[in-house]
Write a structure and sequence with these properties.
Helices cover 2% and strands 54% of the residues. It is mainly β. It is flat, with a radius of gyration of 25 Å.
Length: 179
């Protein structure tokens, strides 16, 4: 049957402890989920499924059944000693088949780490496939998340019982030079 087939459906989602959609909290463990759905009545062969991770911000990455791809760079500190930094850059899954109308889900967890408030994490999933007619295709899906820094102890306003005056100038009494 050479009937043209529809491409698979690819979606990328995020689970976080934050109450706002696509928002993560610095320090928390989050879960990304990739879902692939075959809308056809014939199989689709997945040549490659890759998740391109944000350049910074994710540590302690854990996934089942995937291959973790890392990149190492050597740096030199100010006194001349060299050190190496290894960063996980992407996750891959390969040689997968989706049967007729099948949906498969792949997920991984990571800890959001070392990010400033309002930093952006861009995660991207790329699917390369061949349909039952041996026609190749590529689909990608991106998800942009905003990092928030959670305040553990709320600030409390109060007056000191023993204020410290920085000077005895008249300006000190008017609020220009006092602490």
């Amino acid at each position: 049957d050479s009937t043209p087939q529809r491409p698979p459906l690819l979606s990328l989602s995020l689970q976080s402890g934050a109450t706002t959609t696509n928002t993560v909290i610095n320090g928390e463990t989050i879960t990304y989920t990739i879902q692939i759905k075959n809308p056809n009545n014939r199989h689709i062969t997945i040549t490659s499924l890759e998740d391109i991770l944000p350049e910074t911000g994710l540590t302690n990455i854990q996934c089942g059944g995937c291959t973790i791809i890392s990149d190492s760079k050597k740096y030199e500190d100010p006194i001349g000693d060299q050190f190496e930094v290894t960063t996980t850059t992407k996750l891959t899954w390969s040689s997968l088949t989706l049967t007729s109308s099948q949906t498969k889900t792949y997920s991984f967890t990571a800890q959001v780490s070392g990010q400033n408030n309002a930093a952006m994490l861009n995660n991207r999933a790329i699917l390369i496939f061949k349909d039952a007619n041996n026609q190749a295709g590529l689909i990608d899906s991106s998800l942009l998340a905003t990092v928030r820094v959670q305040i553990k102890t709320p600030a409390q306003l109060g007056l000191s019982a023993a204020p410290s005056w920085l000077s005895d100038e008249p300006a000190a009494a008017t609020g220009v030079d006092w602490g």
